[in-house]
Amino acid sequence: MDAIDRKILQALQANGRAGLQDIGQQVGLSASPCWERIRKLEQSGVIEGFTVRLNAQALGWSDTVLVQLTLDSHTDNTLEKFGEVLATIPEVVEAYLVSGEYDYLLRVAVKDTRDYERLLREKLYKIKGIRHSKSSFVLRTLKRADLPL
Predict the structure, then answer these.
(1) Which phi and psi angles does 35 have, rounded to 5°?
(2) Rounded Cα gap, residues 135 and 118, in angstroms
(3) Which of 8, 92, 99, 129 gives a 20 to 30 Å CA spacing to 16?
(4) 88: which DSSP letter?
(5) Which CATH number covers residue 130?
């Protein structure tokens, strides 16, 4: 990956809907070589896909909760089953296996505190093997950024 590839990635992060001519103009290439580079970045896995960034609040998901979880067991089977269950819960928008005091860090989107209580009762606390959890409501997002290039 060279400097032109990085400029292409910056242009795409800034505006994923930009046309090839616009991106090419920004990086000093015509549309055809620009498209070829983007295709190679996709094939190599640098570009995982194209998506739309949605406004959670505009869609009714007013609160974000960071949930730290510890499991009773850490066998491969337990971790795999836990991951499978998390994948079925749409409110869990991100899940990380982490080092430190807790095993997992989840980012959860909910409508409000009552909705979070419902999620805990109906879904999260029904997952077998959770020993301990700690929840923190996000009060304000201070930074949300793309990857540095």
Answers:
(1) -60, -40
(2) 14
(3) 92
(4) T
(5) 3.30.70.920
Question: 3-state DSSP call for residue 137?
Answer: strand
Residues contacting residue 31 through CB under 8 Å, at least 6 positions apart: 20, 21, 24
The whole-angstrom distance between residue 130's C-alpha and the CA centroid of its chain comes to 23
Q: Give residue 51's pLDDT.
A: 87
Domains: count for the chain: 2
* DSSP secondary structure letters along 15-32: -TT--HHHHHHHHT--HH
pLDDT of residue 144: 86
DSSP 111: S
Report yes or no: 91 and 108 within 8 Å, Cβ to Cβ. Answer: yes
CA distance to 27, 35, 107, 141, per residue, from 13 (Å): 14, 16, 22, 19
Q: What is the pLDDT of residue 68?
A: 98
- Could you tell me whether strands 130-137 and 104-110 are parallel, antiparallel, or unpaired per DSSP bridges? unpaired
Q: CATH no. for residue 21?
A: 1.10.10.10
Domain identity same for 15 and 86? no
- List Cβ<8 Å contacts ≥24 apart for 98-104: 101/68, 101/70, 102/68, 102/69, 102/70, 102/132, 102/134, 103/69, 103/70, 103/71, 103/74, 104/67, 104/68, 104/69, 104/70, 104/71
